[in-house]
Amino acid sequence: MLKRLRIKFIAINMVLVSAVLVIMFSLVYFSTRQNLEQESVMTLQSIAAEPFQLKRPGEQSDRVRLPYFVLQLTRSGTAIPVSGNYDLSDLDFVQSLLNAAEASGESIGELEEYGFRFCYSRGPWGDMVVFADMSSERSTLNGLLRTCVIAGGISFGVFLLISMRLARWAVRPVEDAWNQQRQFVSDASHELKTPLTVILTNAEMLKAAEDDPTARARAADSILTMSRQMRGLVESLLELARADNGSARAVMKGLELSDLVSEWILPWEAMFFEKDLLLETDVQESVRVHGSEDHLRQVLEILLDNALKYAEAPGTVSVSLRRQGHHAVLSVTTPGTPLSKEDCVNIFKRFYRVDQARKMDHSYGLGLAIADQILQEHGGRIYAEGGEHCNRFLVELPLLP
Question: Distance between CA 66 and CA 40 in Å, rounded?
């Protein structure tokens, strides 16, 4: 599909480029041809008006110098050469030119088969007809045509190479989205497969153990646990889908983030205490941001939930909020094995887990991806840093003036 998309992109570009090149070079060619014809006709008319005009030595002339000759027509129909810079020794050829001009019935015209342009004129000396050679004009046009063809071919090749590179660049976001979608479907299917298998197995056991109340209760508890786990996964998937579609965007308003963070942290202190962890806070006052209270609380809850799951006890989890330049910086520092640089990037991808052994602890690897989506909607960002025996997650949000 992506290959066809690239080919289609290149084909559309080259059709447009070809049309532009054809129009541009056609305009150049036909405008040059028209100008040459107009200059030639004006020269013929000027010569026909003053066939006996002599140019003085050193005098400059605007007249285009063409091989021409002037014939004066007598009453008997014969032609007498009167001026010109053309060899008129072949009288039969001259007479054939005159006959062809008379047969055309035009006062100004072209004799394509002979390569001449003619112009009739009536003056005090009688009827005159001027013939001008068109070989120089044709040579100029042929040279221009060759130049246009060569330049067009080179331009086409250059634009083809550029279009091929542009196609790769333009299709790359589509390719990334396609790969992410495939990976997302694969990971979601894998995550749903395990609890579904457990539910089906326990349902069969529940049906088979009709006379064993203990086995039936154990199977029912397992089904209930797996169902809750699946519900949590589906809710997380829906949250991501809403964030991707923009439907999760809430009404933004000015928030006193300092007070809100202090309020949101309070319910978590007891849970950290039960895990033999100490929760410390360092919140700078009067830190104001523009955002959604519900979604920013969700970001903090995701970070605290990760800290509760992965912090090494005993230890201290530190939460701080401070102003840094034009941003509010919220950080959550947890004790534990430092993340590698690769993990600090990949941990925000969907379904990514640093510790693959924790797949059944109700952690689906979606929380940080959801937080990343929320912060993108708020014009902020989230990133991770691995320190000495600790990991730090930082959230940056634009400050309100």
Answer: 8
Closest C-alpha among 275, 287, 281, 348 to residue 314: 275
| Element spanning 203, H or E | helix 135-208
Single pTM value for the model = 0.51
C-alpha span between 227 and 307 (Å, rounded): 25
> What are the helix (H) ranges across 246-366?
257-265, 268-274, 293-310, 341-346
Contact 321, 261 (CB under 8 A): yes
Inter-residue contact 384 to 392 (CB < 8 Å): yes
CA-based R_g, the chain, Å: 44
Give the whole-angstrom CA distance, residue 35 versus residue 360.
Answer: 83
How many Cα atoms within 13 Å fall on the side-chain side of residue 262?
A: 11
Give the strand pairing for 68-73 and 126-133: antiparallel
The pLDDT of residue 364 is 62
Whether the ω angle into residue 314 lies within 30 degrees of 0, i.e. cis, is: yes
Q: Cα separation of 284 and 263, whole Å?
A: 14
> What is the distance between the alpha carbons of residues 187 and 373, in angstroms, rounded to a whole number?
19
Task: Please check the confidence at residue 312 and state whether its pLDDT lies above 60.
Answer: yes
Compute the Cα dihedral for 56, 58, 60, 65 and give only its sign. positive
Q: Domains of the chain (ranges plus CATH)?
A: 2-48+64-139 (no CATH), 253-398 (3.30.565.10)
Structure confidence at residue 54 (pLDDT): 47
